[in-house]
Amino acid sequence: MQLGILISGRGSNMKALIDACAGRDYPAEIALVLSNVASAGGLETARAAGIKTIVIDHKAYPSRAEFERDLDQALRDHGVELVCLAGFMRLLDKDFVKRWHDRMINIHPSLLPSYRGLKTHERVLEDGVRFTGCTVHYVRPQMDEGPIIMQAVVPIDDHDTPQKLARRVLAYEHKIYVESVRLIASGNIRPRGNKTASKGLKF
Ligand code: GRF
């Protein structure tokens, strides 16, 4: 399965996917890494791995629709079959989301549907919850919503800081993103209504 990875920053989830795709028997390849930010650190990582990169700077467009039209075109031109959002910091309009319905996934650093949005680690620590985690899900028009593919649970320590917690959660993000793409690309999971149906989770 051909992947298109969308990033805006350091791209550590993207790197986890690059490493997985380099492995034997992994059922996906990266067709393209695309960023809306020319200075995104992840672009250098992708180039160093010999992966095609494109920058489409949203600030150069008069409207979101025109930006997304070019985004869509680039993904199609490169034969992308599954779009992986990996720290892509632009909200996508419902027309774009509809075009990639069931063919676009996202990673979020909380146990959805709790803690949608930004600053998840700060908020879980403020609330004093004992567990947090991360979620990979199919993308729907509402932010951080959509059928859940995989989650990992991370216990919270009494002396956690947002930075420490972010580091521990991120290590699990890398694992569940790689395993989620494996499940999709091998045809072992599919969306069913607002949930997913799987033939067996390996993680
Ligand atoms: C991750 O925490 C991801 O869950 C969130 O944005 C961050 C991106 O990190 N959506 P990276 O660029 O993959 O390192």
Which features characterize this protein?
single chain; 203 residues; alpha/beta; Rossmann fold; 2 domains; seven-stranded mixed beta sheet; two-stranded antiparallel ribbon; globular; binds 5-O-phosphono-beta-D-ribofuranosylamine; EC 2.1.2.2; Formyl_transf_N_sf
Topology:
Layout (H helix, E strand, L loop, with lengths): L1 E6 L4 H11 L6 E7 L5 H8 L4 E3 L8 H14 L4 E4 L8 H6 L4 E5 L11 H8 L3 E8 L9 E8 L6 H24 L3 E4 L2 E4 L5
Parallel strand pairs: 1-2, 1-4, 2-3, 4-5
Antiparallel strand pairs: 5-6, 6-7, 8-9
Bound molecules: 5-O-phosphono-beta-D-ribofuranosylamine.
5-O-phosphono-beta-D-ribofuranosylamine (GRF) binds next to helix 1, strand 5 and helix 6.
SSE order in H/E notation?
EHEHEHEHEHEEHEE
Distance between the termini: 20 Å
Number of helices: 6
Return the CATH class of the largest domain.
Answer: Alpha Beta
- Taken together, the total number of domains comes to 2
- What is the number of E strands? 9
Backbone structural class: alpha/beta
**Spatial sequence of strands, sheet with the most strands:** 3-2-1-4-5-6-7
The 3D shape can be described as globular
Q: What average pLDDT do the residues reach?
A: 96
What percentage of amino acids are in beta strands? 15-25%
CATH superfamily assignment of the largest domain? Answer: Formyl transferase, N-terminal domain
Q: In percent, how helical is the residue content?
A: 25-40%
Rounded to the nearest angstrom, the radius of gyration is 16 Å
**Major beta sheet, specifics?**
7 strands, mixed
User: What is the CATH fold-level name of the largest domain?
Assistant: Rossmann fold
Low-pLDDT stretches are none
